[in-house]
Design a protein that fits this description.
The structure holds 2 protein chains of 2 kinds. Helices cover 39% and strands 18% of the residues of chain A. By secondary structure, chain A is an alpha+beta fold. Residues 73-78 of chain A have low confidence and may be disordered. In chain A, strands 1, 2, 3, 4 and 7 form a 5-stranded mixed β-sheet that branches. Chain B is an all-alpha fold. Chain B has 2 domains: 2-75; 87-141, no CATH class. In chain B, 61% of the residues lie in helices and 3% in strands. In chain B, a hairpin with a 2-residue loop joins strand 1 (8-9) and strand 2 (12-13). The longest helix of chain B has 55 residues, at 14-68. The model of chain B is unreliable at 117-150 (pLDDT under 50). The chains are: A alpha+beta, B mainly alpha.
Amino acid sequence: MTGPVFAPVRLPLAWRWLGSWVWRLEHAFERARAAASPHDSRRRIALVMIAFGLAFFVMGIGATHQALFSGNSAEFSGASASPYARAALTDRNGALLAVDLPHYQLYVDPREVWDVQGTQQALAAILPQAQAKRLNKALTGTKRAFVIGGLTPDQRTAIHDLGLPGLSFEDDERRVYPLGNTASHLIGFSDSAGSGLAGAEKALDADVRKAAVTGGSVPLSLDLRVQAALEDELRKAANQFTVRGAVGLITDVHTGEILALASYPDFDPNNAGAADPNALVNRVAQSVFEMGSTFKIFTVAQGLDSGTVRLNSTFDVSHPLTIGTQTIHDYDKGDTTLDLPHVLLHSSNIAAAKIALAMGADTVTGYYRNLGLFGSAPVELAESARPLLPQKWSQNVLASASFGNAIAVSPLAVAAGTAAVANGGTYVPLTIRKVEPGHEPKGRRVFSPQTSQTMLRLLRMNVLEGTGGKADAPGFSVGGKTGSNEKVVAGRIDRNKLVSSFAAVFPADGPPEAKRYFLLVLMDEPHATKETYGFATGGWTAAPAAGRIVSRVGPLLGLKRAPVAATDKATVEAALASGEDH
Amino acid sequence: MIGFFDRRWRGFRVVNLVGWGLLAAMILGVYLAKTMAWGERNQIASVEIQIRQEKLRIRLLEAEVAHLEQPRRLEALSAGALGMAPIGPKQEIALDDLHRFERQKPIPAPTLAEPPVFAQADVGAPGVAAKIAVAGPVTAQFAAPQVTQQ
């Protein structure tokens, strides 16, 4: 019996190669053992130990580095991990102005809801602001759905206590403005996605987001105490004269810091969407006004600084000034000839126009440009408006601009320009950021220190015996200039609609580098009252409010009431008469 | 050195036993270290959560304080409930100027039928009565302030 004969099988090359590799591997240890000396074993062991040692060392270094410098420590630093988080805003003294607080979003999973109608009624009772349509859709849907966000902890607790199935919450940080309407135009507001939309919230958006990462806060230049006093007096004056709008602004003339900014009417930034659009307008930054006679501060300062006029220069104001078709009048005070101080004290349009015409368009516009009146006021606020400027600086326009017509600027621009008159002659940009003590902002020289000193005395004199008498605040040496301008409505001047203002510096005494503040009070369309004898001009409406404001904020700003003797009329007149300045 | 690698104990190489021992010690060490680290980590996490919650509570309280101290609210309360108003220049005085004010009217006589026992004892002490007379009641000193303008 013979079995089947198998022919030798020749495997493919790859299989043969694999087989020989496995065979060699199987016997590698035996071959090595046969060939190796004891020294080789030790070497191998040493090499393996070194390799493992190195590997552990590297891993140890990596683990240590990861533990110490991975950056995960921020996770527990108290900073918010939310990409929408915003740091708190505070005033210059640390008082809270805006902060992110925990809120909650309500979700409904209809698959877990037993009683749709009962749930709907219970939620509607607790959340009247919830949209019925959305709630109904969520309750009758097929999957978990969002109902409403921004729930307070109290609302969450109330809903939770209902014990209804299918309701759940998710964290939802919201921006809260605990001061309500206070400083609303300066603080501004942001949207639910954490983007600033107005005021400091928009202007300092990047800073606020950056500070949120580290858990810090962003201090503003605002002083809440000063702001409160300004708003209170402005509101009282606005109610007294039933104005269309009003503006209050206090700045530091040396640092450019905005210490208080009030625009009337105001709004609640917690519910900005429901605010009257008129109230949302930041009249300090967004609105431009023909300021009227407060511009004479610039005209007189320019005249003195350019050498065009001196303190003893006189002006014939006995007849109206006619330029082409335009005739310029003064309020009839029976004046015939005025010296320079009385041009300001009597607020003479004719004399102001003559000063501007004597300087010429190039000189006047050069000063205006240096005073920042040809552009939006340099401040972080996005609302800062550009001025309305004449297309051509003709003689008529030049004369009109000298007493605050023909050019419309924002109150912020007036503040920055007047600060340059009062701080020694340097134009300093405004800021809403807190400036650290000792920091001197960069500015550009516009007027000489002598011009600034003389202007301070003239402004003080105007309060002592000129149109600004009602702005005096005992011991704070208020200097300033009134302004009253008839508004142009539908292309025509409406004599019953005024923009009345008072631009003040306090204290006006002391050297130009002394601590000093600027205050602007502006009433848009004030109405005369019995107490004002039918007048609605700046001297009767804005100036008294300015005096009350200075009296209240002076002590808050660290100013000490000076004895009257140092600031009285005789002292100012003596200083001017000595001719030491011009 | 060779002896050490070849040395055996009950049939096992000593070097192997030492190696296994070290390995066991290392495993145990790593286990203990990780267990302790896990405990510490949990404790740290718990403290951090506590800190975060406290910070959140502080934020809430600060916001509540700011809300309650709204200048307008305080003004309305002080004017409505207490009849207060912003102070005027004549109501202000600097600390440095306090010495300028002398007592402007005599101290009112005590209205108590019988003065308290401690007062009797104090007044009886030498020099004490004079001190009390100079100090006077606070309201008397500020009855008609003259401010600093002189």
